[in-house]
Amino acid sequence: MASTSSLSLSNSLLARSVSHHAPASHSSDHRPGLCLSAASPLPTFSGLKSASSSSPAQIPIAALRRRFLQRQIRAAAIETLAPAETSLVDNSVNTIRFLAVDAVENANSGHPGLPMGCAPMGHVLYDEFIKFNPKNPYWFNRDRFVLSAGHGCMLQYALLHLAGYDSCKLEDLKSFRQWGSKTPGHPENFETPGVEVTTGPLGQGIANAVGLALAEKHLAARFNKPDCEIVDHYTYCILGDGCQMEGVAHEACSLAGHWGLGKLIALYDDNHISIDGDTEIAFTEDVSKRFEALGWHVIWVKNGNNGYDEIRAAIKEAKSVKDKPTMIKITTTIGYGSPNKSNSYAVHGSALGAKEVDATRKFLGWPHEPFHVPDDVKKHWSRHIPEGASLESEWNEKFAAYEQKYKEEADVLKSIITGELPAGWEKALPTYAPDSPGDATRVLSQQNINNLADVLPAFVGGSADLASSNLSLMKKFGNFQKNTPEERNIRFGVREHGMGAICNGIARHCPGMIPYCATFFVFTDYMRAAIRISALSQSRVIYVMTHDSIGLGEDGPTHQPIEHLASFRAMPNVLMLRPADGNETSGAYRVAILNKKRPSVLALSRQKVPLIAGTSIEGVEKGGYIVSDNSSDNKPDVILMGTGTELELAVEAAHELRKEGKAVRVVSLVSWELFGEQSAEYKKELGITAQAVIAAAKELC
Amino acid sequence: MASTSSLSLSNSLLARSVSHHAPASHSSDHRPGLCLSAASPLPTFSGLKSASSSSPAQIPIAALRRRFLQRQIRAAAIETLAPAETSLVDNSVNTIRFLAVDAVENANSGHPGLPMGCAPMGHVLYDEFIKFNPKNPYWFNRDRFVLSAGHGCMLQYALLHLAGYDSCKLEDLKSFRQWGSKTPGHPENFETPGVEVTTGPLGQGIANAVGLALAEKHLAARFNKPDCEIVDHYTYCILGDGCQMEGVAHEACSLAGHWGLGKLIALYDDNHISIDGDTEIAFTEDVSKRFEALGWHVIWVKNGNNGYDEIRAAIKEAKSVKDKPTMIKITTTIGYGSPNKSNSYAVHGSALGAKEVDATRKFLGWPHEPFHVPDDVKKHWSRHIPEGASLESEWNEKFAAYEQKYKEEADVLKSIITGELPAGWEKALPTYAPDSPGDATRVLSQQNINNLADVLPAFVGGSADLASSNLSLMKKFGNFQKNTPEERNIRFGVREHGMGAICNGIARHCPGMIPYCATFFVFTDYMRAAIRISALSQSRVIYVMTHDSIGLGEDGPTHQPIEHLASFRAMPNVLMLRPADGNETSGAYRVAILNKKRPSVLALSRQKVPLIAGTSIEGVEKGGYIVSDNSSDNKPDVILMGTGTELELAVEAAHELRKEGKAVRVVSLVSWELFGEQSAEYKKELGITAQAVIAAAKELC
């Protein structure tokens, strides 16, 4: 392994060129959590009344406020807000609200409701709790934050902007949801440094957060020393009612409780509104009681609109509970501050419209032009740049000390942080001579998994309750569990979708974490949404899918994959691999490990297959290659192509044809995607071009 | 509507020829729930000890029993079984156990563990509670039963056999899991009359049961009269630990609690074992508390292995709770009776093996040869044939009275029971003249849904919290809710997978129930497993999938379907329809309604499309058809094909080419599957044959 200096270690992860044209950082002696200034000219709620006469909407603000209060009967009790002097916190919270409102207005598309309601928890989280370095979003020991309710991404972009991230400069907020911008319609980790995972499809974000927290707990257990907690961060997540309804969230949260992920803190935006209106129409379960049943610590903040102290206290309490994940239910008003649209569907997913924006400005006492960040807010947040740099450099010093004392562990951890594969790791892949006995590719997969477990330091994974069928256990390791988090076999239970989404979280924790997960190939149907996020978010998750094809046997059609190969070949940025024997199975694992920016789906047989002469690990890398050929001058009479368990049939057919004197080439097309990426010359060399395929098809018709 | 006599009504549903070579039915004055006979020669547990010396396994039965007891520490407390005289119930329960053991042994494949553990609840349910007519499995007012833990299907087949169903004769049990048998490896409604839904993929069965119970509650609310409860049945479901872990089950159970489905009774086989071993490794949540949080009534039967009275009492209690669904957690021992394998993974999914079968026979005091049904058991169960016939004929009489008093309602209900579509229903489909203004196909879909709501009496459905985007509301109806179950708009919340599986249950309730469900097309990824079951189980569910293609807009790639068209075209028995305009949208609904044995997926646009001259409802039925053509003698220079929102582009391109003097044919290929089913002549007439496509491709290469 290259000897990376520990000081430059996390900088080496700064994969994108992050410009440093940030505003000059002001050191600040303001302490988080204190009201910093009463100098703001902004009116309080009572002050708003006097401004009513100038409302262009021609509705007296007092009347608007009455209406607003009526709207909130079932949401947070705004009555509890004592008329207080406007604080810097209020100012910051309103900045967040209006950055979201203005960006959505500017795009004429997006979701203002969540940012307006969640601005208080967002402010408290990012300004007072989350540990980050805005100038290096990839600093290893940062806290992780996931916006599971991804449609509210302007909340996150506004927070990243205030925090000083270069991905969310003012011009980026102004190009929200525009082609080519860094601020897409839903958070995308591959577009916006500072965004950890790709969310939007509901429920998966909280499952990603479970994966991130799992990775932390695992690495901490392996690398921390009594005198040095070198891995030590929290994972925060904001999720909404929609996420809570999704089964995938439930699956992952059940596991989080089981695993006792004490450093996972979920903030549940309990706003009672989803797209179809009041959640009363479809969602009346007792969420808190359910989470208690799942083994979580549960806190309820009743006034999420203004209860900064309650939010703060809840997060502190959550941090202190070490043996359970915490769910903080925070009751808020969606679209807080919009006199006519708050607490209704209308504010969820559309721009407020100029008139309502104006009314909201008046209501919240925000006389500023669009995208304005008041100086006191700017100044206050600016401390995060130097503080973030300090956090990282302190950690780098800590790492240097750790490295000196625990050289071996430090080297391993470093490789996990950077994602650098250990030299010679590929030698661990089993190879098979042509006279080797064949076996089921799931058995050969097991050999790969176990060999890789020896050389890849953060290769972790498991099955959705089919370990003994998928043959996915790493025999030298025990089970990752609440009290044995240093182990590497993950027992997901019968929760395919949660499994996939958790693996996405693990993969996104840091470049060296390599998760795999297993079930029957047919049950990719349960986890397809997670596989698509793997593909989209460029996450290297290895899907070990056994019981391919009719070889599945007597379990019958409910368990028999048919359309699955075609369906994954059609999914962008997925490698669909169907190895034919031992060498190709090893080749498939090689490809899966080396492709750091895409997931691989391996279709593996339940039944035995022979070792086929001519197969190779290298061949797999090209997607298609010649397994055998008795033609000369690149002029075969016939080219037979096969994949997986059908390659054997192609080989047998070739044998028969050759007996009849034919020149036959057998090609293994183990991955259509990889083959498609080869040069035109290579394809021509193999005789597999569009023209050739068409000509062959014509002969057959 | 044809005037079906009410007496022949349910017989008309006997779609398969059910042979009547059942054993002569004995009328019986034995009442369900009473122990009928103490005359059985079978030993009690204490009697077993004396038989130990003859064990061929050479292990004293006393020692086996000790071992067996040890295995059960975490499972049911076998100690509570007082040494009692062997009852007929014991005999029946052991018959069920051994029919399962013997069938799995015979097939050398299958899952004996669940049937052995669930035989007591299975016996009590089928023999004492479930209302059915074995000679007409399709009798409308029967109780519905779903084995959500489908792998344990030998339990169901054994029960159907004892109950007198012609689908599960002894020879059928002997051909369990064999090619062409009526007893496949997982329950399939289309193979085995008496099986209501297709299960196996875990978690979905309980969601189907929610759909069945929803259909009952809805129809009861609409058709029952104070003096006549013409729709009145329960829905029972057995589910296991695996089902409990799956998110889809959670989604559906949350809705069942919300809807207050009082006649849904779920029996949870709490056996603590799944494929990966003790559920302790992945599933430690408090399930009972969770179900309370979901609004269910929860009962715990601690001794599911022998506690017949407790099981009985629990089901009685469950039936008496009218405002909530009930979950009865029944603690059992998987593989009960197998001395060496019970309470372990070993008994879950493999044949016991001759030696262990023998030991189990000894242990349970079952000296009989394989597939033996003792005479007293036979005699006892035989009453279900006359009783079932009586139940049905009593109901038929009831219906006749109902019909006399409530003619109009009876006619409608009859059409729902038979599935006969009202004459002229198709006239409700909107048609559009070529000069009509265009619109988004989701808007045109809304017109169809609302028109169909007027003419199809049991057209019910809704969206997964996207009603205002999918435009899926039936405006003349309110929401199906706990207290308004007569309404037809279903609010599924953000629960796509649960939605699909619930719709499968609704569709399988009776032939006239026509469920539709809606979300964004991309989110079929969340519900794909349910769509596949729709296809496999031949269930007419209409999937209203809006926001097709890049027309989705700024929501970005997480919300943008790409591979979805291809992936559903690859799924067997699904109609993938991509209408181009208003006429084709109506055509798609026509096809979806008429195809009673397959689901349809409609991909609908968010954005406006023009009405295209030449489109038609009839054209859609053929899958592909000529929209415009200026060629003569069937010799166009070019054939342009398009689907959905791209048909407009093909039309525009044709316009340009024709200006250049070309003879251009434009073909709309709205459904590849339907087109594939057309005659060779028709395809040739259109000029779209494999040869023509290949030739065209060759030109392009």
- The unreliable regions of chain A are 1-8, 10-59, 69-85
Determine Rg of chain A (CA atoms, Å): 28 Å
Instruction: Please identify the structural class of chain A as seen in this structure.
Output: alpha/beta
- Largest protein-protein interface: A-B, 94 and 93 residues
- Structure summary, number of beta strands of chain A: 18
Characterize the biggest β-sheet of chain A: 6 strands, parallel
Hey, roughly how much beta strand do the residues of chain A contain?
5-15%
How far apart are the termini of chain A?
56 Å
- Strands across the major sheet of chain A, in which order? 10-9-11-12-14-13
| Helical coverage of chain A, percent range | 40-55%
Rounded mean pLDDT score of chain A: 90
Total count of helical runs of at least 4 residues of chain A: 27
Oligomeric state of this protein: homodimer
Molecular shape of chain A: globular
InterPro entries (chains A, B): THDP-binding, Transketo_C/PFOR_II, Transketolase-like_C_2, Transketolase-like_Pyr-bd, Transketolase_bac-like, Transketolase_BS, Transketolase_CS, Transketolase_fam
Family (chains A, B): Belongs to the transketolase family.
Protein name (chains A, B): transketolase
Cofactor (chains A, B): Co(2+); Mg(2+); thiamine diphosphate
Question: Can you describe this structure?
Answer:
The structure is a homodimer. The relative contact order of chain A is 0.10. Chain A has a six-stranded parallel beta sheet with strand order 10-9-11-12-14-13, sandwiched between helices. Chain A is about 40% helix and about 10% strand. Chain A has about 700 residues and is an alpha/beta fold. The termini of chain A are far apart. Chain A is built from 27 helices and 18 strands. At the A-B interface, helix 9, helix 10, helix 11, helix 18 and helix 20 of A face helix 9, helix 10, helix 11, helix 18 and helix 20 of B.
